[in-house]
Protein backbone atom coordinates (compact mmCIF):
# COMPACT_ATOMS: atom_id res chain seq x y z
CA UNK A 1 0.00 0.00 0.00
CA UNK A 2 2.86 2.37 0.72
CA UNK A 3 5.14 3.11 -2.18
CA UNK A 4 8.36 5.02 -2.00
CA UNK A 5 10.99 5.85 -4.56
CA UNK A 6 14.10 3.75 -4.07
CA UNK A 7 16.47 6.71 -3.88
CA UNK A 8 14.31 8.62 -1.43
CA UNK A 9 15.93 10.40 1.48
CA UNK A 10 15.20 7.67 3.99
CA UNK A 11 18.04 7.27 6.46
CA UNK A 12 18.34 3.92 8.12
CA UNK A 13 18.89 4.12 11.83
CA UNK A 14 17.66 7.57 12.81
CA UNK A 15 17.95 8.39 16.51
CA UNK A 16 15.15 10.97 16.76
CA UNK A 17 12.01 10.54 14.68
CA UNK A 18 8.95 12.71 14.36
CA UNK A 19 5.74 11.42 12.79
CA UNK A 20 2.86 13.63 11.69
CA UNK A 21 0.23 13.61 8.99
CA UNK A 22 1.29 16.97 7.56
CA UNK A 23 5.02 17.23 7.01
CA UNK A 24 7.39 20.20 6.90
CA UNK A 25 7.31 20.46 3.09
CA UNK A 26 4.68 20.33 0.36
CA UNK A 27 5.17 20.00 -3.37
CA UNK A 28 3.08 21.52 -6.11
CA UNK A 29 3.18 20.33 -9.67
CA UNK A 30 3.51 23.09 -12.27
CA UNK A 31 1.89 22.99 -15.73
CA UNK A 32 5.30 22.29 -17.21
CA UNK A 33 5.75 19.28 -14.92
CA UNK A 34 8.21 20.90 -12.53
CA UNK A 35 7.88 20.34 -8.81
CA UNK A 36 7.97 23.32 -6.51
CA UNK A 37 8.79 22.69 -2.82
CA UNK A 38 7.40 24.91 -0.10
CA UNK A 39 8.65 24.60 3.45
CA UNK A 40 6.28 25.21 6.33
CA UNK A 41 6.86 26.61 9.81
CA UNK A 42 5.46 25.79 13.23
CA UNK A 43 6.60 24.40 16.54
CA UNK A 44 7.92 21.09 15.27
CA UNK A 45 10.04 22.70 12.55
CA UNK A 46 11.81 24.99 15.00
CA UNK A 47 11.97 22.17 17.55
CA UNK A 48 13.72 19.81 15.18
CA UNK A 49 16.12 22.47 13.97
CA UNK A 50 17.06 23.06 17.62
CA UNK A 51 18.52 19.58 17.94
CA UNK A 52 20.96 20.52 15.15
CA UNK A 53 21.78 19.23 11.70
CA UNK A 54 24.21 16.64 12.99
CA UNK A 55 21.60 14.81 14.97
CA UNK A 56 20.35 11.83 13.07
CA UNK A 57 16.75 12.99 12.81
CA UNK A 58 13.99 11.89 10.49
CA UNK A 59 10.51 13.32 9.97
CA UNK A 60 7.98 10.79 8.67
CA UNK A 61 4.86 12.35 7.13
CA UNK A 62 2.17 11.59 4.60
CA UNK A 63 1.97 12.75 0.99
CA UNK A 64 -1.12 14.97 0.98
CA UNK A 65 -1.73 16.14 -2.57
CA UNK A 66 -0.83 15.21 -6.12
CA UNK A 67 2.38 17.26 -5.98
CA UNK A 68 3.56 15.32 -2.92
CA UNK A 69 2.70 11.99 -4.52
CA UNK A 70 4.55 12.91 -7.66
CA UNK A 71 7.59 13.94 -5.60
CA UNK A 72 7.60 10.54 -3.89
CA UNK A 73 7.26 8.76 -7.24
CA UNK A 74 10.17 10.73 -8.70
CA UNK A 75 12.30 10.20 -5.62
CA UNK A 76 12.45 13.92 -4.94
CA UNK A 77 12.76 14.77 -1.28
CA UNK A 78 14.36 16.86 1.41
CA UNK A 79 17.09 15.50 3.63
CA UNK A 80 15.62 14.22 6.87
CA UNK A 81 12.08 13.85 5.55
CA UNK A 82 10.44 10.57 4.58
CA UNK A 83 7.11 11.08 2.88
CA UNK A 84 4.75 8.13 2.67
CA UNK A 85 2.65 7.74 -0.45
CA UNK A 86 -0.31 6.09 1.23
CA UNK A 87 -3.09 5.10 -1.18
CA UNK A 88 -5.13 8.27 -1.82
CA UNK A 89 -8.51 6.69 -1.01
CA UNK A 90 -7.19 5.21 2.23
CA UNK A 91 -5.69 8.53 3.19
CA UNK A 92 -8.91 10.40 2.41
CA UNK A 93 -10.97 8.04 4.58
CA UNK A 94 -8.48 8.22 7.43
CA UNK A 95 -7.85 11.98 7.28
CA UNK A 96 -11.19 13.44 6.19
CA UNK A 97 -13.45 10.62 7.34
CA UNK A 98 -12.08 9.65 10.76
CA UNK A 99 -9.52 12.25 11.87
CA UNK A 100 -11.30 15.42 10.78
CA UNK A 101 -14.96 14.38 10.79
CA UNK A 102 -14.97 12.24 13.92
CA UNK A 103 -11.95 12.69 16.20
CA UNK A 104 -11.71 16.45 15.65
CA UNK A 105 -15.46 16.76 16.28
CA UNK A 106 -15.28 14.69 19.46
CA UNK A 107 -12.34 16.58 20.97
CA UNK A 108 -13.78 19.99 20.05
CA UNK A 109 -17.38 18.99 20.90
CA UNK A 110 -18.74 20.09 17.52
CA UNK A 111 -21.59 17.68 16.84
CA UNK A 112 -25.18 18.81 16.47
CA UNK A 113 -26.23 15.83 18.56
CA UNK A 114 -29.91 15.43 17.64
CA UNK A 115 -28.75 14.04 14.28
CA UNK A 116 -25.08 13.25 14.57
CA UNK A 117 -22.86 11.33 15.03
CA UNK A 118 -24.40 8.14 13.64
CA UNK A 119 -21.80 5.38 13.50
CA UNK A 120 -22.76 2.75 10.93
CA UNK A 121 -21.12 0.76 8.13
CA UNK A 122 -19.66 3.83 6.42
CA UNK A 123 -17.82 4.77 9.57
CA UNK A 124 -16.59 1.20 10.01
CA UNK A 125 -15.12 1.22 6.49
CA UNK A 126 -13.40 4.53 7.18
CA UNK A 127 -12.10 3.19 10.46
CA UNK A 128 -10.45 0.29 8.61
CA UNK A 129 -8.62 2.91 6.51
CA UNK A 130 -7.63 4.81 9.64
CA UNK A 131 -6.07 1.62 10.98
CA UNK A 132 -4.28 0.94 7.69
CA UNK A 133 -2.95 4.49 7.56
CA UNK A 134 -1.70 4.27 11.15
CA UNK A 135 -0.10 0.93 10.34
CA UNK A 136 1.75 2.43 7.37
CA UNK A 137 3.29 4.99 9.71
CA UNK A 138 4.15 2.40 12.35
CA UNK A 139 5.87 0.21 9.76
CA UNK A 140 7.85 3.11 8.26
CA UNK A 141 8.98 4.21 11.73
CA UNK A 142 9.93 0.67 12.73
CA UNK A 143 12.02 0.40 9.57
CA UNK A 144 13.77 3.77 9.90
CA UNK A 145 14.49 3.93 13.62
CA UNK A 146 17.91 3.03 14.98
CA UNK A 147 18.24 0.87 18.09
CA UNK A 148 16.66 2.53 21.13
CA UNK A 149 15.67 5.62 19.12
CA UNK A 150 13.16 8.22 20.37
CA UNK A 151 9.98 8.57 18.32
CA UNK A 152 7.64 11.54 18.77
CA UNK A 153 4.23 10.84 17.25
CA UNK A 154 1.89 13.81 16.70
CA UNK A 155 -1.81 14.23 17.15
CA UNK A 156 -5.19 12.52 16.69
CA UNK A 157 -4.38 11.41 13.15
CA UNK A 158 -1.88 8.93 14.52
CA UNK A 159 -3.46 7.79 17.79
CA UNK A 160 -2.93 4.09 17.03
CA UNK A 161 0.72 4.41 16.04
CA UNK A 162 2.25 4.10 19.54
CA UNK A 163 0.58 0.74 20.20
CA UNK A 164 1.33 -0.61 16.72
CA UNK A 165 4.94 0.54 16.84
CA UNK A 166 5.46 -0.92 20.30
CA UNK A 167 4.52 -4.35 18.90
CA UNK A 168 7.02 -4.00 16.08
CA UNK A 169 9.88 -2.46 18.04
CA UNK A 170 9.93 -2.98 21.80
CA UNK A 171 13.33 -1.22 22.05
CA UNK A 172 12.09 2.26 21.05
CA UNK A 173 11.16 5.17 23.30
CA UNK A 174 7.77 6.23 22.06
CA UNK A 175 6.12 9.56 22.81
CA UNK A 176 2.84 10.97 21.56
CA UNK A 177 1.75 14.60 21.67
CA UNK A 178 -1.82 15.92 21.29
CA UNK A 179 -2.13 19.41 19.82
CA UNK A 180 -5.90 19.44 20.32
CA UNK A 181 -8.04 19.47 23.43
CA UNK A 182 -9.15 16.10 24.79
CA UNK A 183 -12.87 15.38 25.07
CA UNK A 184 -14.63 15.07 28.43
CA UNK A 185 -15.63 11.50 29.34
CA UNK A 186 -19.34 11.70 28.43
CA UNK A 187 -18.57 13.24 25.06
CA UNK A 188 -15.73 10.81 24.30
CA UNK A 189 -18.05 7.90 25.03
CA UNK A 190 -20.22 8.80 22.05
CA UNK A 191 -17.66 6.80 20.08
CA UNK A 192 -18.56 3.12 19.74
CA UNK A 193 -17.15 1.32 22.78
CA UNK A 194 -14.64 -0.80 20.88
CA UNK A 195 -13.33 2.25 19.01
CA UNK A 196 -13.01 4.30 22.19
CA UNK A 197 -11.05 1.45 23.71
CA UNK A 198 -8.79 0.98 20.71
CA UNK A 199 -7.95 4.68 20.54
CA UNK A 200 -6.98 4.82 24.19
CA UNK A 201 -5.02 1.57 24.05
CA UNK A 202 -3.25 2.80 20.92
CA UNK A 203 -2.10 5.94 22.69
CA UNK A 204 -1.17 4.07 25.86
CA UNK A 205 1.29 2.08 23.75
CA UNK A 206 3.53 5.15 24.22
CA UNK A 207 5.99 5.50 27.08
CA UNK A 208 4.88 9.07 27.53
CA UNK A 209 1.94 11.17 26.37
CA UNK A 210 2.08 14.95 26.10
CA UNK A 211 -0.73 17.51 26.19
CA UNK A 212 -0.82 21.28 25.87
CA UNK A 213 -2.56 21.93 29.20
CA UNK A 214 -3.34 20.18 32.46
CA UNK A 215 -7.02 20.31 31.57
CA UNK A 216 -6.57 18.19 28.44
CA UNK A 217 -4.24 15.77 30.22
CA UNK A 218 -6.78 15.30 33.00
CA UNK A 219 -9.58 14.72 30.49
CA UNK A 220 -7.52 12.02 28.82
CA UNK A 221 -6.79 10.33 32.14
CA UNK A 222 -10.48 10.47 33.05
CA UNK A 223 -11.36 8.74 29.75
CA UNK A 224 -8.80 6.01 30.44
CA UNK A 225 -10.19 5.46 33.92
CA UNK A 226 -13.79 5.33 32.67
CA UNK A 227 -13.18 3.12 29.65
CA UNK A 228 -10.18 0.98 30.64
CA UNK A 229 -9.95 1.33 34.40
CA UNK A 230 -6.62 3.21 34.32
CA UNK A 231 -3.66 4.49 32.30
CA UNK A 232 -1.59 1.30 32.67
CA UNK A 233 1.62 3.03 33.66
CA UNK A 234 2.08 5.33 30.69
CA UNK A 235 3.55 8.65 31.84
CA UNK A 236 1.59 11.81 31.10
CA UNK A 237 3.13 15.27 30.83
CA UNK A 238 2.05 18.82 30.05
CA UNK A 239 4.00 21.03 27.63
CA UNK A 240 2.35 24.33 26.73
CA UNK A 241 3.69 25.52 23.41
CA UNK A 242 4.63 29.22 23.42
CA UNK A 243 5.14 31.80 20.69
CA UNK A 244 8.50 32.12 18.95
CA UNK A 245 9.39 35.66 20.05
CA UNK A 246 12.68 36.10 18.19
CA UNK A 247 11.23 34.95 14.92
CA UNK A 248 8.02 36.99 15.26
CA UNK A 249 9.72 40.23 16.28
CA UNK A 250 12.13 40.09 13.36
CA UNK A 251 9.65 38.86 10.79
CA UNK A 252 6.99 41.41 11.68
CA UNK A 253 9.34 44.34 11.00
CA UNK A 254 10.23 43.42 7.45
CA UNK A 255 9.34 45.50 4.41
CA UNK A 256 6.50 43.28 3.18
CA UNK A 257 4.75 43.68 6.54
CA UNK A 258 5.19 47.47 6.40
CA UNK A 259 3.57 47.44 2.97
CA UNK A 260 0.61 45.44 4.24
CA UNK A 261 0.30 47.81 7.21
CA UNK A 262 -0.04 50.78 4.92
CA UNK A 263 -2.61 48.98 2.76
CA UNK A 264 -4.66 47.93 5.78
CA UNK A 265 -4.64 51.46 7.23
CA UNK A 266 -5.88 52.71 3.90
CA UNK A 267 -8.72 50.18 3.91
CA UNK A 268 -9.66 50.94 7.51
CA UNK A 269 -9.87 54.66 6.73
CA UNK A 270 -10.76 57.39 9.23
CA UNK A 271 -7.24 58.89 9.26
CA UNK A 272 -6.00 56.67 12.06
CA UNK A 273 -8.82 57.60 14.45
CA UNK A 274 -10.69 54.33 14.18
CA UNK A 275 -10.21 51.49 16.65
CA UNK A 276 -9.48 48.08 15.17
CA UNK A 277 -10.69 44.69 16.37
CA UNK A 278 -8.60 41.94 14.75
CA UNK A 279 -9.10 38.21 14.42
CA UNK A 280 -6.93 35.80 12.45
CA UNK A 281 -7.95 32.17 12.12
CA UNK A 282 -8.02 29.25 9.84
CA UNK A 283 -11.70 28.79 9.04
CA UNK A 284 -12.23 25.96 11.50
CA UNK A 285 -15.64 25.08 12.91
CA UNK A 286 -14.01 25.30 16.35
CA UNK A 287 -12.84 28.91 15.93
CA UNK A 288 -16.30 30.39 16.47
CA UNK A 289 -15.91 33.07 13.81
CA UNK A 290 -19.65 33.38 13.20
CA UNK A 291 -20.52 34.07 16.86
CA UNK A 292 -17.64 36.55 16.92
CA UNK A 293 -19.26 38.43 14.03
CA UNK A 294 -22.65 38.31 15.76
CA UNK A 295 -21.07 39.79 18.88
CA UNK A 296 -19.53 42.60 16.83
CA UNK A 297 -22.89 43.25 15.20
CA UNK A 298 -24.51 43.44 18.62
CA UNK A 299 -21.90 45.96 19.72
CA UNK A 300 -22.78 48.20 16.76
CA UNK A 301 -26.46 47.68 17.39
CA UNK A 302 -26.54 48.33 21.12
CA UNK A 303 -23.83 50.99 21.26
CA UNK A 304 -24.33 53.22 18.25
CA UNK A 305 -21.49 55.44 19.47
CA UNK A 306 -19.09 52.88 17.96
CA UNK A 307 -20.46 53.26 14.44
CA UNK A 308 -17.87 54.84 12.12
CA UNK A 309 -15.37 54.60 15.01
CA UNK A 310 -14.42 50.93 14.88
CA UNK A 311 -13.51 48.41 12.18
CA UNK A 312 -13.41 44.64 12.53
CA UNK A 313 -10.53 43.18 10.51
CA UNK A 314 -11.26 39.46 10.19
CA UNK A 315 -8.92 37.08 8.40
CA UNK A 316 -10.48 33.66 7.90
CA UNK A 317 -8.11 31.50 5.91
CA UNK A 318 -9.25 28.35 4.08
CA UNK A 319 -9.02 25.02 5.83
CA UNK A 320 -10.12 21.46 5.00
CA UNK A 321 -12.20 22.49 2.02
CA UNK A 322 -12.71 18.84 1.04
CA UNK A 323 -15.36 18.70 3.74
CA UNK A 324 -18.80 20.13 2.90
CA UNK A 325 -19.41 21.29 6.45
CA UNK A 326 -16.23 23.42 6.29
CA UNK A 327 -17.26 24.88 2.93
CA UNK A 328 -20.69 25.75 4.35
CA UNK A 329 -19.14 27.34 7.40
CA UNK A 330 -16.80 29.42 5.23
CA UNK A 331 -19.81 30.62 3.23
CA UNK A 332 -21.65 31.52 6.43
CA UNK A 333 -18.70 33.63 7.62
CA UNK A 334 -18.81 35.63 4.37
CA UNK A 335 -22.60 35.92 4.50
CA UNK A 336 -22.67 37.31 8.05
CA UNK A 337 -19.80 39.73 7.33
CA UNK A 338 -21.61 41.06 4.24
CA UNK A 339 -24.88 41.38 6.16
CA UNK A 340 -23.15 43.57 8.76
CA UNK A 341 -21.63 45.71 6.04
CA UNK A 342 -24.98 46.16 4.29
CA UNK A 343 -26.82 46.94 7.52
CA UNK A 344 -24.36 49.44 9.00
CA UNK A 345 -21.79 50.44 6.36
CA UNK A 346 -21.69 53.99 5.00
CA UNK A 347 -19.91 55.62 2.05
CA UNK A 348 -16.88 56.25 4.20
CA UNK A 349 -16.94 53.28 6.59
CA UNK A 350 -16.83 49.53 6.08
CA UNK A 351 -17.56 47.91 9.46
CA UNK A 352 -16.03 44.49 8.60
CA UNK A 353 -12.98 43.91 6.44
CA UNK A 354 -12.90 40.20 5.70
CA UNK A 355 -9.98 38.56 3.93
CA UNK A 356 -10.00 34.87 3.11
CA UNK A 357 -6.73 34.49 1.20
CA UNK A 358 -3.89 33.32 3.43
CA UNK A 359 -1.19 35.99 3.72
CA UNK A 360 1.22 35.66 6.64
CA UNK A 361 2.74 39.13 6.21
CA UNK A 362 -0.73 40.69 6.27
CA UNK A 363 -1.61 38.72 9.41
CA UNK A 364 1.47 40.16 11.13
CA UNK A 365 0.51 43.65 9.99
CA UNK A 366 -2.95 43.17 11.52
CA UNK A 367 -1.37 41.94 14.77
CA UNK A 368 0.73 45.10 14.90
CA UNK A 369 -2.11 47.56 14.52
CA UNK A 370 -4.82 45.75 16.51
CA UNK A 371 -6.36 47.64 19.44
CA UNK A 372 -8.31 44.52 20.35
CA UNK A 373 -7.68 40.89 19.41
CA UNK A 374 -10.71 38.61 19.41
CA UNK A 375 -9.83 34.97 20.12
CA UNK A 376 -13.09 33.24 21.05
CA UNK A 377 -12.86 29.55 20.07
CA UNK A 378 -15.50 27.05 21.12
CA UNK A 379 -12.58 24.89 22.20
CA UNK A 380 -8.94 24.96 21.21
CA UNK A 381 -5.85 22.96 22.16
CA UNK A 382 -3.82 26.14 22.75
CA UNK A 383 -4.42 28.93 20.16
CA UNK A 384 -1.19 30.58 19.16
CA UNK A 385 -2.82 33.74 17.78
CA UNK A 386 -3.62 34.73 21.37
CA UNK A 387 0.10 34.41 22.15
CA UNK A 388 1.46 35.99 18.98
CA UNK A 389 -0.53 39.24 19.00
CA UNK A 390 0.89 40.59 22.30
CA UNK A 391 4.43 39.82 21.13
CA UNK A 392 4.08 41.70 17.86
CA UNK A 393 1.70 44.51 18.87
CA UNK A 394 3.04 48.04 18.23
CA UNK A 395 1.19 49.91 20.96
CA UNK A 396 -0.46 47.28 23.10
CA UNK A 397 -3.57 45.29 22.38
CA UNK A 398 -6.43 44.18 24.62
CA UNK A 399 -7.07 40.46 24.33
CA UNK A 400 -10.62 39.08 24.39
CA UNK A 401 -10.05 35.40 25.05
CA UNK A 402 -12.30 32.36 25.31
CA UNK A 403 -11.98 30.42 28.53
CA UNK A 404 -12.16 27.26 26.38
CA UNK A 405 -8.81 27.95 24.66
CA UNK A 406 -5.78 26.18 26.09
CA UNK A 407 -4.02 29.57 26.13
CA UNK A 408 -6.49 30.69 28.80
CA UNK A 409 -4.53 28.72 31.41
CA UNK A 410 -1.49 30.93 30.82
CA UNK A 411 -3.04 34.21 29.65
CA UNK A 412 -6.35 34.33 31.53
CA UNK A 413 -5.17 36.85 34.14
CA UNK A 414 -4.45 39.65 31.68
CA UNK A 415 -7.12 38.90 29.10
CA UNK A 416 -10.83 39.79 29.05
CA UNK A 417 -12.24 36.32 29.37
CA UNK A 418 -15.42 35.21 27.60
CA UNK A 419 -17.71 32.21 27.44
CA UNK A 420 -17.59 31.55 23.68
CA UNK A 421 -21.30 30.76 23.43
CA UNK A 422 -22.33 34.01 25.14
CA UNK A 423 -22.70 36.48 22.28
CA UNK A 424 -23.95 39.27 24.57
CA UNK A 425 -21.06 38.70 26.95
CA UNK A 426 -18.62 38.80 24.04
CA UNK A 427 -20.11 42.08 22.78
CA UNK A 428 -19.71 43.52 26.28
CA UNK A 429 -16.09 42.30 26.43
CA UNK A 430 -15.39 43.97 23.07
CA UNK A 431 -16.72 47.24 24.46
CA UNK A 432 -14.61 46.92 27.62
CA UNK A 433 -11.55 46.10 25.50
CA UNK A 434 -12.14 49.05 23.18
CA UNK A 435 -12.43 51.46 26.10
CA UNK A 436 -9.46 50.13 28.08
CA UNK A 437 -7.08 53.01 28.95
CA UNK A 438 -3.95 52.83 26.83
CA UNK A 439 -1.58 52.61 29.81
CA UNK A 440 -3.43 49.60 31.21
CA UNK A 441 -3.53 48.01 27.79
CA UNK A 442 0.21 48.43 27.35
CA UNK A 443 0.91 46.97 30.81
CA UNK A 444 -1.30 43.97 30.21
CA UNK A 445 0.24 43.42 26.79
CA UNK A 446 3.70 43.34 28.32
CA UNK A 447 2.65 40.68 30.80
CA UNK A 448 0.78 38.71 28.13
CA UNK A 449 3.87 38.73 25.90
CA UNK A 450 6.03 37.49 28.78
CA UNK A 451 3.71 34.55 29.51
CA UNK A 452 3.21 33.85 25.83
CA UNK A 453 6.89 33.42 25.13
CA UNK A 454 7.94 31.56 28.26
CA UNK A 455 8.14 28.22 26.45
CA UNK A 456 9.47 28.83 22.93
CA UNK A 457 9.01 26.03 20.37
CA UNK A 458 12.59 24.79 20.51
CA UNK A 459 12.42 24.40 24.31
CA UNK A 460 8.96 22.83 24.08
CA UNK A 461 10.40 20.18 21.79
CA UNK A 462 13.64 19.58 23.68
CA UNK A 463 11.78 19.22 26.99
CA UNK A 464 9.64 16.47 25.52
CA UNK A 465 12.60 14.70 24.03
CA UNK A 466 14.46 14.87 27.31
CA UNK A 467 11.50 13.66 29.34
CA UNK A 468 11.07 10.75 26.94
CA UNK A 469 14.69 9.68 26.96
CA UNK A 470 15.36 10.29 30.66
CA UNK A 471 16.18 7.00 32.39
C1 LIG B 1 -4.55 22.43 13.89
C2 LIG B 1 -4.42 21.65 15.15
C3 LIG B 1 -3.44 20.53 15.01
C4 LIG B 1 -3.64 19.75 13.74
C5 LIG B 1 -3.73 20.62 12.56
C6 LIG B 1 -4.08 19.82 11.34
O1 LIG B 1 -3.43 23.21 13.69
O2 LIG B 1 -4.05 22.46 16.23
O3 LIG B 1 -3.69 19.70 16.11
O4 LIG B 1 -2.62 18.79 13.57
O5 LIG B 1 -4.73 21.57 12.79
O6 LIG B 1 -4.44 20.67 10.32
P1 LIG B 1 -4.59 20.16 8.84
O7 LIG B 1 -4.67 21.38 8.01
O8 LIG B 1 -3.35 19.38 8.55
O9 LIG B 1 -5.84 19.34 8.79
From TrEMBL:
What domain of life? Bacteria
Give a single Pfam family match. Glyco_transf_20
Protein family (similarity comment): Belongs to the glycosyltransferase 20 family.
Q: This protein is called what?
A: Trehalose-6-phosphate synthase
Q: Which organism is it from?
A: Streptomyces lasiicapitis
Amino acid sequence: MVSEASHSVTRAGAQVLVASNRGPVTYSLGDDGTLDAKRGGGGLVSGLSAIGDDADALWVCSALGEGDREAVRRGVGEPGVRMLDIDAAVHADAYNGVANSVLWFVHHMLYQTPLEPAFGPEFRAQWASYEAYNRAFAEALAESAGPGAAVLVQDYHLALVPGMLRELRADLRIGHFSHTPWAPVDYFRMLPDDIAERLLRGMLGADRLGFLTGRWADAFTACCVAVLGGTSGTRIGVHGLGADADFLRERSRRADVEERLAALREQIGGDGTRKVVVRVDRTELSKNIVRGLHAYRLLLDERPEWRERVVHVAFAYPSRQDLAVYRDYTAEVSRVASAINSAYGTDSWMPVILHVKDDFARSLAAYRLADVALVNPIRDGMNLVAKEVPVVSDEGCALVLSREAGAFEELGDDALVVNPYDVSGTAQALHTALTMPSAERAERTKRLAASATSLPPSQWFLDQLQALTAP
